[in-house]
Design goal:
mainly beta; Neuraminidase; 5-stranded antiparallel sheet; 4-stranded antiparallel sheet; 25 strands; 0% helix
Length: 303
């Protein structure tokens, strides 16, 4: 079922459940246009997963994983507990590229996205508390890390406008999705400005992606829905997901018109469900919307 405001055209999407595999905490789906494959992660299961047609592959990670990025040379960048790592898909080996020294206890890296210039931007989170000790960091093309801004408790909703000049993000503990001016050439960021608050829709914001028109598709994890918002925060539509806790969307498929959504079975804290599809990955067809190809992290300068 799709709920739409009176000014939006109603659509009836078809929702497909991908396989019988269930994640503890599914996150960060990414579609690789090079080989038509879907990657995603199970944060608490410490796994990276890939589905290419009917072929499934998985890789173990050394700690809880917050997000991933595709790279030009066919590897994956991982945001792990202590910073940014590189995963060699052929061997399954991981190595740390850049350490992030968290300013407080019980912290790890979380949600992230590659900017339009091929640099990976990810934020951190606190665990078991609400202190704003987290920050956003950028993994540069040479493998070093730069802190962009701080004052975050739980980084989520990380994505970029189609022109790359706006970085969207959320602090999920505040229920607010914000925007930051982002200089594509230098990567310099401006002050944060709040765009919209999702609590009126029954949830904090979780993972987010941007479609080809620049609208934001936000996982409303506590409401079991995906919300589509304009860049200035106007709600365009709500799409029901047939599981209690959807976490993150991405566009994929040959025409980039399928919305893939990950979900939670047991997050290890407050969110857990015995629903048979909890923790599944869903493919939502028929939304009438296209996404953008995922930007590849530029790892060609990393030894």
């Amino acid at each position: 079922m799709t709920n739409t405001p009176h000014h939006a055209s109603a659509v009836t999407p078809h929702i497909e459940v991908l396989g019988s595999r269930r994640d503890r905490l599914g996150e960060c789906p990414l579609w690789d246009t090079r080989d038509q494959s879907l990657y995603w992660i199970d944060t608490k299961g410490r796994r990276v997963r890939r589905l290419q047609g009917d072929s499934y592959t998985e890789w173990a990670t050394p700690s809880d994983i917050g997000s991933i990025a595709l790279t030009r040379r066919g590897c994956l960048v991982l945001s792990l507990e202590d910073g940014f790592h590189l995963l060699e898909l052929a061997s399954g080996a991981t190595r740390r590229l850049a350490e992030v020294r968290h300013p407080g206890p019980s912290m790890r890296m979380n949600d992230g996205r590659t900017d339009r210039q091929g640099r990976f931007v990810a934020g951190s989170m606190v665990m078991g508390r609400h202190d704003r000790d987290g920050a956003y960091y950028r993994l540069e093309r040479d493998g070093s890390a730069t802190q962009l801004f701080d004052g975050i408790a739980l980084a989520n909703a990380t994505c970029f406008s189609p022109d790359g000049r706006t970085l969207y993000h959320a602090d999920s503990f505040s229920d607010e999705v914000s925007a930051v001016d982002y200089d594509p050439a230098s990567g310099t960021t401006g002050p944060r400005r709040m765009l919209f608050n999702t609590r009126a829709h029954g949830s904090a914001p979780d993972g987010t992606t941007v479609d080809a028109d620049g609208n934001l598709w936000v996982a409303l994890v506590q409401a079991g829905k995906i919300g589509c918002f304009t860049p200035d925060g106007q709600l365009l539509r709500l799409v029901d997901v047939p599981t209690p806790y959807p976490t993150c969307p991405c566009f994929g498929g040959p025409a980039l018109d399928v919305l893939y959504v990950t979900s939670i079975r047991n997050s290890g804290n407050m969110l857990n469900s015995d629903h048979p599809d909890a923790g599944a990955v869903f493919a939502i067809h028929g939304l009438g919307v296209r996404g953008l190809p995922e930007v590849l992290f530029d790892d060609e300068g990393i030894a």
